Amino acid sequence: MQLNSFLTVGAEVRDALGAGKPVVALESTIITHGMPYPANLETARAVEAVVRQNGATPATIAVLDGKLVAGMDDATLQRLATATGVVKASRRDLAAVLSTGGSAGTTVAATMIVAKLAGIAIFATGGIGGVHRGAEATFDISADLLELAQTPVTVVCAGAKSILDLPKTLEVLETHGVPVLGYGSDEFPAFFSRTSGHTVDHRFDTPEALARVIGTQRALGLGTGILVTNPIPLADAIDSATIDPHIAAAVAEAETQGIGRKELTPFLLQRILDLTGGRSLEANIALVKNNATLAARMAVALAAL
Ligand code: PSU
Ligand code: MN
């Protein structure tokens, strides 16, 4: 049995792909572990709407009842957003969850795997996982980075939160040959902030120019993913002086409580949300929509190539 036989592609997504029309993949760990209800559901719906408004078909990806799903109806989205105790599935979890008929939110890594299987080239998310602070002691490096190293899908994100060690994250991407392309900026953005003090490899100022890089990368057969970084809109940005103490506090708490492995990122996201009194959530929602807009425009440009 092939992995493909576990894949269910929604009718609308299947039609769009069959007709060569633009499709944008969306992840679901942000729904199951990244945001509280009902903001998670409202955001998931809003992001799908933004993709449509910009001319592409949204394909939200998750694991449902032992199937990989790309594109779901609203009732299913609602089920995912309200389910408790749902698994956070990365590459290593897929086989176990599928073989037991389980359901899961898919991380950036797992969503890339499913997007590739379904034939979707572009995927929008908020922030990717990366090298955690203190990784020199804990070895905590997200599987998202190693997926970018081996799966040819383009991920549009707002950089990475400074819960991570950004220079080390960029070093790992460089080692694995993953292009980091800045949209309209020379800086690698830090999720809540438009700047981080670190540069991207190459800057492009239009969705068309980014789509051409995807086409060329594909023609070269390099096999790696591409990371496109899209800074949070200016009006929604939180300056680092405001957010950094909260991030530092969350990281310190995680260390004291011995939180590690797959629980660490959801723990940090939840603590930052609590500590900022919901302001981080507003920023998070704004940047995900902004990334979905860019991803849709890139998908439109790619389909026209
Ligand atoms: N960072 C965020 N929001 C998120 C995540 C990361 O700002 O929702 C989620 C994504 O699904 C990402 C995953 O792929 O966490 C990474 O988890 P880990 O660090 O355990 O690999
Ligand atoms: Mn980890």
Ordered list of secondary-structure elements with their pairings:
Layout: E1 7-9, H1 11-18, E2 23-26, H2 29-34, H3 39-53, E3 57-64, E4 67-70, H4 74-82, E5 87-89, H5 94-99, E6 104-106, H6 108-118, E7 122-124, H7 135-138, H8 143-148, E8 154-157, H9 166-175, E9 180-183, E10 202-204, H10 207-220, E11 226-229, H11 240-256, H12 264-275, H13 279-304
Parallel strand pairs: 1-4, 2-3, 2-7, 5-6, 7-8, 8-11, 9-10, 9-11
Antiparallel strand pairs: 3-4, 3-6
Residue runs with pLDDT of under 50 for 5 or more positions: none
Mean pLDDT: 96
Q: How many discrete structural domains? A: 1
Q: Could you tell me which ligands this complex binds, including any ions or cofactors?
A: pseudouridine-5'-monophosphate, manganese (II) ion
Tell me the total number of β-strands: 11
- Ends: how far apart? 35 Å
The radius of gyration is 18 Å
CATH superfamily: Indigoidine synthase domain
List the secondary-structure elements in sequence, H or E.
EHEHHEEHEHEHEHHEHEEHEHHH
By secondary-structure content and strand pairing, the structural class works out as: alpha/beta
State the CATH architecture: 3-Layer(aba) Sandwich
From the spread of the alpha carbons, the general shape counts as globular
